[in-house]
Amino acid sequence: MCAALVMLSSCGRNKSNDGGADAYLNRSDVGNPVESIQITGSKNDSTIWDVFAPDNSDITVRVNKYIWNASLEVLDFLPVQSVDPFSGVIVTGYGTPPGGGRSYRATVYVRDPSLDARALHVAMQTRGGSAVSPATVKAVEDAILTRARQLRIADGKL
Asked: Which superkingdom, per the lineage (predicted)?
């Protein structure tokens, strides 16, 4: 056990003072305060203990996978222009639904990891730029939520 601890402790940063640039910048006898600034944060300064450090990234994945997949399935007649699972946005191009004569495009925003109506927002537009009726948007949202629930039941995670 002690040998393992000694080996792990040697995995830290190399703190030798070989007279290189870091040794010059860290000297306390340098008269110019700008030259005595310590350089940190390089990619080679990582240790084994960084695995246990908290993640400082600004991006957190908070998308419900069932709503995400259901959105892609329900709107499969629309060509996908861009998807961003990190922000929960799906942007489609114009397409005509089966049996319909009007061309639509949609933007889907999945904003919560829960499987409920608050997690989903759909915005639709026709090719002429006119707004789509709220009843049509609600019907698309309901179809996505229904399909998401079916996917969850099929997955067996109730």
From this structure: Bacteria
